[in-house]
Amino acid sequence: MQEYKLFARRIGLIGLTSILVRMSSFISVPILTKTLPLEEYGLWALVGATIGLLPPLMSMGVPFAMVRFHASSRTKEELRNGFYSIFFFVLAVGFLISSILFAFSDKIAVILFDNNVTLVRISVVILFIECISGVFIAFYRTREKVRLYSIFTFLKTYMTVSFAAFFVITGYGIVGAVIGVLASTAIISIAMGVIIIRQIGLPKGVSIKIRDYLVFSLPLLPGKLSSWLVNSSDRYLLGLLLGVVFVGYYAPAYVLSMTISIFVSPLIFMLPVELSKCYDNNEMGKVKSLLYYSNKFFLTLAVPSVFGLSLLSKQILFILTTPQIANKSYAIVPFVAIASMLGGIYSIYAQAIALKKRTKITGSIWILAAGLNVGLNLLLIPLFGIIAAAITTLASFLLAFGLTSYFSLKFIPFDTAPSFMLKAIAASVPMSIAIIYWPLSGIFGLILNIGTAAAIYLISLFLLKGISRKEIMFFLDMLRNQ
Asked: What is d(CA 80, CA 342) in angstroms, rounded to the nearest whole number?
């Protein structure tokens, strides 16, 4: 229990930041969906998916190796050498790939982005900056600079929203919105880099030793590519097969469903470092304890969120978007919300595979999931539209979750809290009944609905002995400290 308390205190700030970051969608989505034409909002969704998921592939996953190899670094020289080895490698590879994408921007625009070449070229520049930014973020994770990471994440998110909203409202459309993304990304990346240089200094005869990092990260690359396909191919294929308008219908509901990822984000930020330290020191009891309590924490919040989002999706989308979008897309929320929950559990379980450095397994799992995802999307989207994309997403995450569970528990057996999950599901039932039989309209009615449902869920879970009084008091204490 002591390890759980220490770990929970350390992720508190990251959790708060994740909530604030996700809340930005409740600002940006209404502005963009109600100001931009539906086709341009569909393009915005495609740009967001590309920027969010391509940089780790372009950098070959090497920044993550910093977390695994240097979490226990004791000397400044060792850390500096590792950082600059990874930085210069990512700089070179990112520039090469970005140059190729820029050279073919006109062809990419014709195929995916409704012939908007300017949009593609700006996005490519953002991708290059995000590759460099990924190295900086890996440094903050490695050194557990939680406060700095949280500040930069918060500032970047709300600068992006502010700049994009300004350009859209002043009539610059989708291109202006993406220029806003470019500006905020560049400003924050420069600030992060300056602080790192102040901490470790400039390179001093750095010996570029990238081989060990590549041996660790390259087997992850097929998995990252496949994961990218699972997470994004639905939007690209919707655009290709049905047109960007259908991406505009699909994207807001997808963003709403993925709100569940808020709860796993702080865990994924902290777990690799904490687990690596414990595992390298042969403290297997602590490793299993961290995995157990991380999973329990996530399930406590994710399970009722699936129920709540599924029942309130139409009402939320009517408030955030337009009636046209809400009526077309609310039905996909239950499928994508469950997929989001499975993805969160997967992220925790996969840490066991990473600790054993068996990253080829993770890559193979995502290759299988991607094949299933793309194949089903190509087959079903022309027949059933956006609902098929949602169901396919769920099927892919279910496959990845099942296979990862098998291998992670084989390598490091730990308590996955199955009885607790059943209690969380049972506690969500009276909460759902309250939502169904006590519907309230408007923003304030929605807030009251959510607050009441949360109270009913927590009381029910407590009565079912899913959480103890001690855990509740600790959680409230942690909130006060944060």
From this structure: 37
**Joined tokens for residue 155:** 């500032």
- CB atoms under 10 Å from CB of 2, counted, come to 8
* Interatomic CA distance for residues 223 and 396, integer angstroms: 13
CA distance 8 to 361: 29
User: What is 154-191 written as a DSSP string?
Assistant: HHHHHHHHHHHHHHHHTT-HHHHHHHHHHHHHHHHHHH
Tens digit of pLDDT for each residue in 310-353?
Answer: 999 999 888 888 888 889 889 999 999 999 999 999 988 888 88
DSSP class per residue in 234-275: HHHHHHHHT-HHHHHHHHHHHHHHGGGGGGTHHHHHHHHHHH
Q: Which residues contact 473 (CB under 8 A, 6 or more apart)?
A: none
Please answer whether residues 56 and 343 qualify as being in contact, where contact means their C-beta atoms are separated by less than 8 angstroms. Answer: no
Query: Given the structure tokens 């990218």, which residue do they identify?
Result: 228
What amino acid is encoded at 13 in this protein? L
413: left (phi over 0), alpha (psi -120 to 50) or beta: beta
Residue 127: alpha-carbon gap to chain centroid: 17
Q: pLDDT tens digit string along 146-180? A: 778 888 888 898 999 899 999 989 888 899 999 99
CB neighbourhood size of 197 (10 A) = 12
84: its two tokens = 């600059």
